[in-house]
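Here is one chain, start to finish.
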Amino acid sequence: MATKPVNPKTPFAEKKPVARKRLQPIDREKLIVEEAIKFFAEVGFEGRTRDLAKRIGVTQPLLYRYFPNKESLIERVYQEVYLGRLKPEWTSLIMDRSLPLSERLLEFYTKYQNAVSNYEWVRIFMFSGLKSVGINERYLAVLEERILRPICTELRAEQGFPDILQVPISTEEMELVWSLHGQFFYRAVRKWIYNLPAPDDVSEILRYDIDCYLEMAPRLLEKRFVNIK
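Its structure:
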């Protein structure tokens, strides 16, 4: 008898429940979180915890021993998938003035892509925005503080423009750095949401994105600070 093919667009759709094993509480909790990440990436936040429990091979009351409600489970997914992959040392990398800013940005975005450009990260992020569960707003605020504002700070330092403590970052500056970051994110969406081809090796594309940003952003700053320098 022919087996039913798995739809590549929903790689977990045909997954059978995990066989229940006797696990230590810490291992059981880890399993629940891992399966919740896969579950929400596949079906979105409309997915029911009873269906998740069935997939894992546990009862819903047992799942609630670890996570008393769906919101607490979503919060743990946010911590694991988003904050857990946004490394603190990346801010230090961006602000390391022993290297040209172009090299710092290329190294950062290469590491960032390796950490987050995957099925689960992208799909959960999109489902979160549609459902308004708060992941997007919180994560983007952290991203702006740890990554985007430091990029603006370092660009000014490299170009010899006033520090952001002297002159606050303008809306135009922030839009430019969001555009840089957005190009990376769009490629991930194209692959994991639109199911369109995307290059596996994007090192040269990242370099092109960064070069464009570093060419355009100083022009904006020069016009802004022409009367300040």
